[in-house]
Amino acid sequence: MKLGTSAFIGAAVPGPAATLLSPKLAEITVQLDQVVGDISPNIYGQFIEHLGRAIYGGIYDERQRRSRPDVLEKVQQLRPPLLRYPGGTVTKIYHWKDGVGPSRPVRKNLIWGGLDTNHVGTDEFMQYAKLVGAAPFLTVNMSTGTAEEAADWVEYCNGTGSYYATKRAENGHAAPYQVKYWGLGNEEAAKEDAGTLQNPQDYIKQAWYYAKLMKLQDPSIQLIMAGDQEAWNQQVLRELHPICDYISLHLYASSKPGEPASLFASIAAMEGSIQKLAAQIKALTPEKVTGFSKWYRFPSRQQPVKIALDEWGIWEGGGQGAYGLEMEYTWNHALGVATFLNIFQRNAAVIGLATWAQTVNVLAPIMTNDTTSICQTVYYPLALYRRLCGPRSVAVTVAGAPTLDVAASTDGKTLTLAIVNQSNQAAVTVKLPPLAGNWTAHELNAPSIEAKNTLAAPTKNVVAYKQRPLPAGAQAYTVAAHSITLLQVAR
Ligand code: AHR
């Protein structure tokens, strides 16, 4: 393609040296009538665990016994529709009754270390979820807990008039919380964890039992079953599918030391894991459950089984804090996050929810110290995609540009092309799809892929956001090196 006079060269290509780079030519093709699937708003979920400084010192100020306003404001701007709690691995030793009512026992956090004052428990979490506008998602203890304890939690959260529902009212919360999403355990296949269900048949037996008692308390709840490798998933899907609304998949990408570009290979492999699980769901689970005995006294699942990416993120070595989980993220990691979000769009048909692990201080977009908090680089793509991407994924391809990762979404009026240029070096000029209407570019970039925001310089933000309209009739756009661009056209 030759660039015509109407072609728009993104002003983001900085300075004379960069413009001397001969940009590669590429072409993006969108098929608006080929719908990939509805993008669940719940892919923009978040997760907080009783782990290190995620809760105490993160969302919550222990000295003042209240949530931290500076952190709250930052979480609110992410607009997470879903918030997962209380773990994670800690689920295996967490007893929800320690965290409600006036008397809160201080417990050892046997999994992550330190003490848990239990000042944040179910009611405080629900209050927080409400403040950020998120639906709550609770994970139950299948190790040191019991099915009855899990069912009591459903009753506490969703019941009316009965014993635990009355306890909730006595604790100042008359209206039920209507918690819809319940995780049956967390990474139950993990041998090193404090669980006992590493044999999938043990998990399946227990999960049926938990599901029965919990659904007898509230038949409308949706269950997220613990997933793992292919063989585990096969048995779980085959035997639990009538009551499995979601099967969980945890994705933590990483790069090889000194090879930032290897992050994208790690993330690409994860798209493979999603597609492998999607194929298993298709092969092993009917879209509709038939013949479910009425004697269960609750209905089977009502929708096709979906994937719950209920932990996803980027986990490199070398962090601070508990288990080295307090990581500083570079701009390269932000490119990785945008690539993940593109993958979620491209696989929208099968991804029901995703919760980033974790919101504050633990592999987190938000970091705090005693006096301030900052947004790390990875915060910005999470916020931008949430704000601008549409609710329906449509087919898109890119030819001639191996460093570009692309997804397309629409709300029926506006088409949003999400373009990540993973190249550290080269701008790429793309021919735009020939659609009527004027394009607007929303670009995130940083001076280099190593750039990061840190608590040492809390007022410095390396991430620049630019919004600019393209000239009328623009046929091409140049995406800058290491940029994230959402290109929108109103239709
Ligand atoms: O997010 C940190 C930990 O990673 C979670 O507790 C666990 O589920 C996962 O392995």
Structural topology:
Blueprint: H1 15-20, E1 24-38, E2 45-47, E3 60-61, E4 66-67, H2 69-78, E5 82-85, E6 107-108, E7 115-116, H3 122-132, E8 135-140, H4 147-158, H5 163-170, E9 181-184, H6 200-217, E10 222-225, H7 230-240, E11 246-253, H8 262-284, E12 306-314, H9 331-346, E13 351-357, E14 366-368, E15 373-375, H10 379-388, E16 392-399, E17 404-410, E18 414-421, E19 428-431, E20 439-445, E21 464-469, E22 476-479, E23 484-490
Parallel strand pairs: 1-19, 2-5, 2-13, 5-8, 8-9, 9-10, 10-11, 11-12, 12-13
Antiparallel strand pairs: 1-16, 3-4, 6-7, 14-15, 16-17, 17-18, 18-23, 19-22, 20-21, 20-23
Alpha-L-arabinofuranose is lined by residues 49, 51, 87-89, 186-187, 311, 357-358.
Poorly predicted sequence stretches spanning 5 or more consecutive residues? 1-23
Basic shape:
globular
How much strand? Answer: 25-35%
Could you say what the CATH architecture of the largest domain is?
Alpha-Beta Barrel
Mean pLDDT: 94
Helix content: 25-40%
Give a brief description.
With 491 residues, the chain is of the alpha/beta class. It has helices at 15-20, 69-78, 122-132, 147-158, 163-170, 200-217, 230-240, 262-284, 331-346, 379-388; strands spanning 24-38, 45-47, 60-61, 66-67, 82-85, 107-108, 115-116, 135-140, 181-184, 222-225, 246-253, 306-314, 351-357, 366-368, 373-375, 392-399, 404-410, 414-421, 428-431, 439-445, 464-469, 476-479, 484-490.
